[in-house]
Amino acid sequence: MTYQRKNYLGGSDIAAILGISFKKTALDVYLDKVCPSEKKRGTKETDRGNRAEAYVLDTYTDETKNDLTRGIKTFFDQQYPFLAGNIDAKVKNKNIIVEAKTTAESLSQWDDGIPEYYKTQVGHYAWLLDAERVDIPVVFSAWKYKCFTYERDTEYEKNLKERAIQFWTNHVLKKIPPDPICLEDVIKLYPVSNGKKIKLLGSLKKTFENLKSLKADIKEKQEAFKQGVKIIQEYMEKNEVLCDNEKDLVTWKTQTSKRFDTRAFAEDYPGLSDQYKKGITIRVFKIK
Question: What pTM, to 2 d.p., does this model score?
Fold first, then answer.
């Protein structure tokens, strides 16, 4: 049976479901499963991480003398086939998972142990494979290397499993999105308007009045900021740096960049220009 990521919850989804992911929210996971968009292109960061994975695993082998099995296929829980994992490697002839990581963080940021975001991922893998443990070799900034170990915690893993099952059952299967936790979530949840009006509830009037007040305050501060910038720039004239006795305070440097002139291109090649136009739909929020 061929599985696609929309058909299961993987290790990187668990932290998002728990609300502790720095990459995505529970709603992102829901939308990815219920109405997946076209395949996303990887970022430079993820591409570098994928390329560096082999180096991290090689370093682990050099340090531990453990031979590894790599290229392991996605594995699934027999009872709950919507729970799955993709691990980097296993120690040959042992039930020890090895999950390689690269991070721009310094080694000191892991002084308290495995960060919760990564712990949820390896805990998920550990119970899926009933592993002895999970080794986490990490390459930090300045190419510093250290290996951490996740020791089995059955209560912790039980909670991860229960939360994942609840999420899939209550949200994905029923097609009921989880509550949005940030402004970006709300925009993703309601991307298109329906042309109708809705009356403001009394319980929201205070929120709306506060919002109007904040908008006026922001506008006032923006004007004050622009006026301050004007005064400083007038003082600097053609000078590039404003400083005190110890350090630079402001720079105002000339920069040159080349940008594609879409207007000129459209005038010179109107037919060709139309072929590359792409419609973009957004909802614009305005306080009247």
Answer: 0.81
